[in-house]
Amino acid sequence: MADAAGAVLAVAVRAVGVLRRSPRPLHPRGVVHRGVLLLDDAGAPGARELGAPAVVPALVRVSRSAGLPAPLPDVGGLAVRWWRDGREQDLLLSSTGLGRLGRFALVPRLRPSRGPFSTIMPFVDEDGRGVVLAAVPVPGAPRDGVDLLLLSARPGGAWRRCGRLTCPPAADDGDDDALRFDPVRHAPMTVPGWAARVRRRSYRVARERGTAAPPPQRAASPAP
Hints:
Blueprint: H1 2-20, E1 30-39, H2 47-50, E2 54-64, E3 76-84, E4 87-95, E5 117-118, E6 123-124, E7 130-137, E8 146-153, E9 160-167, H3 193-208
Antiparallel strand pairs: 1-2, 1-9, 2-3, 3-4, 4-5, 5-7, 6-7, 7-8, 8-9
Helix pairs in contact: 1-3
């Protein structure tokens, strides 16, 4: 079933890319921020696999999944990259709810970046247990910046804070066509086999439509 779902998803991504004539079939436009990822609770589910405790530079791309213009509702996308032992760590989250079922369901919003995000599909930690990650806006966060609390939980369990992601407003409010994220090959922890099979083909199709080497790591200001 996972292979069949992956094949269907890859066909859909390819079709959207052809119709859109864009190197990004999904999340065609976004804003790239540079900031800081703080991982401050090594006891939260999956936090050790993320590298906690740590304070590291991060790249963040905020986008709308279908690329619909505001004020139309759209599913928000949050892509985060940091580096651990010289290796890229890519985490992709989408706008969802936070409930036991809602964390696994996409939620379109008028302003997608103003609600919670989750990874939807779980990871597996070093103990073989499932982990879902989420991000929620901090009250009073800057309108054009990023200020998110990072949460982790077992698939049906309570959320626990594991960090914070902060970025000032993007200097040029621009995108980076060369920036590509891969949450399977560069996942910060183990991706279950079925989840990898669902995602792998579609991400390969997306890369085929136009990829380039990621930009070099740049320093970011310390976390507040």
